[in-house]
Design goal:
Layout (H helix, E strand, L loop, with lengths): L9 H16 L24 H15 L6 E2 H10 L4 H7 L7 E2 L2 H9 L1
Antiparallel strand pairs: 1-2
Amino acid sequence: MERGSAKHGRRLDEQLRKETRPIVSGGHDPRVEEWKSAEPSGEDQPVVDLDGAVDERTEIAALLGKEIWPATGTTIQRRVREQHGPDWALERVDRLPAGRVFDNFADVWESLTG
């Protein structure tokens, strides 16, 4: 089943895709006018590196897989080792409470990031 847009036609969807392609795949802000760019975090707000967080989250989730749930902290740690996860991933999951049962990866990520 192909999922279509209820708000736009095919031609408008294609035009929007062309306009957003540099933003999605470029790795930098393609806008010439500075006022069109997103504003940075304020002084009292933490700096957010979404690309790094998303990459880490994706890699740990891929190491664990879907068939592991529910899983204890010990099971998650063992799984990352079995999958030969990178050292940074091992260090992250080693902080999980050993006896706690996690229902899904969202619970794990929340425990890792607070």
